[in-house]
Write a structure and sequence with these properties.
There is one protein chain. The protein has two domains: about 170 residues, no CATH class; about 170 residues, Four Helix Bundle (Hemerythrin (Met), subunit A) (Up-down Bundle). About 70% of the residues lie in helices and about 0% in strands. A hairpin with a 5-residue loop joins β1 and β2. α4 runs antiparallel to α5 and α5 runs antiparallel to α6. The protein is flat. The two termini are about 25 Å apart.
Length: about 350
């Protein structure tokens, strides 16, 4: 296949992935909607099922319109269908990433600009959800994860998309694989942990619901414990990316381990916030609401660094990695970046 064909395949696959993610989101929303059963109707069914009525009464209580069996079966079917669609979307998403890398000349990893970083990051979020779904009982998270993935992919395709281009000299290094893979894995895990923390705050505000979709969300104690476990996994990976591989690569590219670049500063701020989160839980016994709020602050700094800093920073040496801009030489001989519009 030619490079143009690979790029076309990548664009079509990312579009297909977005559509299937959206369909999966709709299916899971329908699954949640099937759980909205008024308390009076549920009480009436319980009373009918427990009474010694005629056979006809029992049929009314368990029929397809009002009974427990039909909604339960329908809900289970929608849940399985939603997971199947998510798996299909993840496969299409992976195909898009492979096609993006194969479209470059020479072939490379698909992490050369902000569009590619974002599509790779959303892929890891969706994949991590599928991998942790059974282990951590995260089926209830499907609408939140898919909503995030669909929204972020829309931003990537509409505002961040750029043509395939060779890697700049500073990016053409094996550290690209080591540094970016660890950063993306940590970003995916932090995002899952952030969604858990947001769900905790929502359920805390709404109280213990006895009916409706919130009954699917685990208890506050389970949400708090699961969020901590996910963050505890992500933090060492982020540390490896930000404080080890990042400075080493910076020294190799710019002859300095630390440049006070906006991207570096915000990555360190993110590290400090999550370090404070884990430290507070381990030493001060911070749990529940305070920990969840701190985790949400960390998530905000993470994604601001990931995408937002590229819109507000005018002097970032990481601009070439975000916008695909070529590296040029300043008059003083230090490497700089020629900034180009996103589109």
């Amino acid at each position: 296949m030619s490079n143009t064909a690979w790029e076309t395949l990548s664009n079509q696959a990312i579009g297909a992935a977005g559509i299937v993610y959206f369909l999966a989101l709709l299916v899971h929303l329908a699954e949640w909607a099937s759980l909205r059963q008024p308390a009076t109707a549920r009480a009436a069914r319980t009373s009918s099922a427990g009474s010694e009525g005629s056979e006809g009464d029992v049929l009314v209580a368990t029929g397809p319109e009002t009974g427990e069996e039909a909604p339960s079966t329908r809900t289970a079917f929608l849940a399985r269908l939603g997971v199947l669609l998510t798996v299909i979307a993840v496969v299409a998403h992976f195909t898009a990433l492979v096609g993006r890398g194969m479209a470059a000349d020479p072939n490379r990893v698909p992490w050369g600009n902000m569009y590619e970083f974002t599509t790779a990051g959303t892929f890891v979020v969706a994949l991590m959800y599928l991998l942790l779904r059974r282990r951590l009982k995260l089926d209830w998270m499907a609408p939140f994860v898919l909503g995030f993935v669909v929204a972020t992919l829309m931003v990537a395709v509409i505002w961040l998309h750029s043509e395939v281009a060779p890697l700049t000299e500073a990016l053409d290094s094996y550290w690209l694989v080591i540094h970016v893979v660890s950063a993306i894995i940590a970003t995916g895990a932090f995002t899952i942990g952030g969604i858990l923390s947001i769900a905790y705050l929502v359920k805390l505000r709404r109280g213990d619901a006895t009916s409706g979709p919130l009954t699917r969300v685990p208890s506050l104690a389970v949400l708090d414990r699961t969020a901590y476990r996910v963050h505890a996994f992500a933090f060492p990976v982020w540390t490896f990316a930000v404080l080890i591989t990042g400075p080493i690569w910076a020294h190799e590219a710019w002859s300095r381990y630390w440049n006070w670049d906006p991207k570096e500063v915000w990555a360190f701020i993110t590290w400090v916030v999550y370090a404070a989160y884990l430290h507070a839980r381990a030493t001060a016994g911070w749990k529940g609401r305070n920990a969840a709020i701190l985790a949400c602050v960390g998530l905000a700094t993470l994604w601001f660094n990931f995408i937002g800093i590229n819109y507000f920073a005018t002097n970032s040496q990481h601009s070439y990695a975000s916008l695909g801009a070529p590296v040029v030489e300043r008059i003083d001989g230090a490497p700089d970046v020629a900034r180009v519009p996103l589109h």
